[in-house]
């Protein structure tokens, strides 16, 4: 199994585990909330009974003290209403009053109206009679109960924020560590390749002088391959450092590499370059050639028998961008894998490392400040990758009618 698939499964498992814990926490908190709601409902019933008895036995001084003691221990916000709309609040903000004549406190009758509306939304009232008049009592949740309802969600929010920050921190640290490993391996590889390449160059010169093979085509191809090894070494040495970007005509850069690549690929694969011949962009040739090489290799591997690889270079004058579309007539990529193909380790080949497109994406995005993505793909018909670069317009745009077939 691909290590990134395992990583994805672990993420899903941890997410489900976190959701289960969060759900259990919310359920457990709600269990206490419901229990406290029942207790407050019983306290409200007791409060109403006390008020009713106190009204009925108002002149009984012995019981008055008992009623007042019960009310003090039952600190609930209650409003009693009469049929004519009059309000009798108890247990609400003591700094407010709905009596205009009371100058000792702030007059705010709307406060009590709003509190009554909130009570009506939260709980059903209790009705009782006093002197033949029907009274209705309302109450609202206590401050502690309100906070207890919100607590599990606040708790989950804080935990989620902490986990998110921890995940970002660990991911950044892991990414930095991986980058250091990659840079170290790349520079060491470049260092190790230096000596055998120098030896090969000397051996080729010796062959040319000893066997008078200055014009031999095989020796020329050997020199091309040695030059290619030098470019590859240069690529690895540039990883981890900011490359020098230079102004180049994109078509010439692409054509030079295609000319090298096509003679080392099956003759059944046809290469075509179309589009704009003059558009320019800031490029690092060793690294950009690596991008084209990876795309062409993937395209060639996707073509099982005969097929065509097309590179279309388009200038977007409005956005001052260069579009480079690399298309093949291969087996295609399912839409679910359009993003995954750029992940390190993703490959459809038994002996593949799954690093080519990952490096390609990094070179385009990190070193050339561009974009690369799967523009279109269809199973059995082929795939098109699109590269977007900023153009360096140093010429007068001309109308282009197309490029002849290469190869």
- Which descriptor suits the 3D outline? rod-shaped
Relative helix content:
40-55%
What low-confidence regions span 5 or more consecutive residues with pLDDT below 50? 394-407
Mean pLDDT: 81
Number of strand segments? 13
Q: How many DSSP H or I helices? A: 8
CATH class of the largest domain: Alpha Beta
CATH topology of the largest domain: Heat Shock Protein 90
In the CATH hierarchy, the architecture of the largest domain is 2-Layer Sandwich
Radius of gyration: 39 Å
Overall tally of domains = 3
**Between the first and last Cα atoms, what is the distance in angstroms?**
40 Å
Describe this structure in words.
By secondary structure, this protein is of the alpha+beta class. The protein folds into three domains: 3-141, no CATH class; 146-221; 244-390, Histidine kinase-like ATPase, C-terminal domain (Heat Shock Protein 90, 2-Layer Sandwich), CATH 3.30.565.10. Helix content is 53%, strand content 18%. It contains eight helices and 13 strands. The protein has helices spanning 3-56, 61-73, 109-122, 143-210, 217-238, 250-262, 285-302, 356-367, and strands at residues 78-81, 87-90, 96-97, 106-107, 126-130, 133-139, 246-249, 269-275, 280-283, 307-316, 321-328, 371-378, 382-390. Strands 8-10-11-13-12 form a five-stranded mixed beta sheet. Helix 1 (3-56) runs antiparallel to helix 2.
């Amino acid at each position: 199994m691909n290590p990134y698939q395992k990583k994805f499964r672990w993420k899903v498992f941890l997410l489900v585990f976190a959701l289960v814990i969060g759900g259990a926490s919310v359920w457990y908190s709600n269990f206490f909330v419901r229990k406290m709601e029942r207790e407050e409902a019983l306290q409200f019933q007791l409060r109403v009974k006390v008020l009713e008895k106190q009204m009925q036995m108002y002149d009984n001084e012995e019981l008055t003290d008992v009623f007042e003691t019960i009310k003090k221990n039952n600190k609930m916000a209650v409003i009693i209403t009469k049929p004519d709309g009059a309000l009798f609040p108890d247990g609400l903000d003591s700094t407010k009053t709905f009596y205009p004549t009371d100058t000792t406190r702030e007059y705010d009758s709307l406060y009590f109206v709003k509190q009554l509306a909130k009570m009506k939304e939260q709980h059903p009232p209790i009705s009782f009679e006093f002197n033949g008049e029907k009274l209705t009592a309302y109450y609202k949740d206590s401050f502690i109960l309100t906070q207890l309802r919100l607590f599990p969600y606040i708790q989950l929010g804080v935990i989620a924020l902490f986990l998110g920050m921890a995940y970002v921190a660990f991911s950044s640290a892991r990414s930095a560590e991986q980058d250091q490993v990659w840079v170290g391996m790349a520079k060491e590889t470049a260092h190790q390749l230096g000596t055998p390449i120098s030896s090969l160059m000397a051996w080729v010169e010796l062959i040319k002088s000893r066997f008078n093979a200055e014009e031999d085509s095989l020796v020329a191809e050997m020199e091309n391959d040695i030059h290619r090894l030098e470019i590859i070494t240069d690529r690895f040495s540039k990883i981890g450092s900011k490359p020098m970007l230079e102004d180049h005509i994109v078509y010439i850069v692409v054509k030079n590499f295609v000319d090298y690549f096509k003679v080392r690929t099956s003759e059944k694969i046809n290469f075509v370059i179309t589009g704009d011949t003059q558009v320019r962009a800031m490029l690092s040739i060793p690294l950009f050639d690596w991008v084209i090489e990876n795309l062409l290799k993937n395209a060639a591997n996707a073509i099982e028998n005969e097929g065509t690889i097309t590179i279309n270079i388009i200038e977007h004058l409005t956005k001052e961008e260069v579009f480079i579309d690399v298309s093949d007539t291969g087996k295609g990529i399912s839409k679910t894998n359009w993003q995954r193909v750029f992940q390190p380790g993703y490959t459809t080949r038994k002996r593949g490392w799954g690093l080519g497109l990952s490096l390609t994406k990094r070179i385009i995005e990190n070193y050339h400040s561009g974009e690369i993505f799967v523009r279109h793909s269809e199973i059995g018909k082929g795939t098109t990758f699109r590269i977007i670069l900023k153009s360096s317009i140093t010429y007068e745009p001309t109308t282009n009618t197309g490029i002849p077939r290469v190869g």
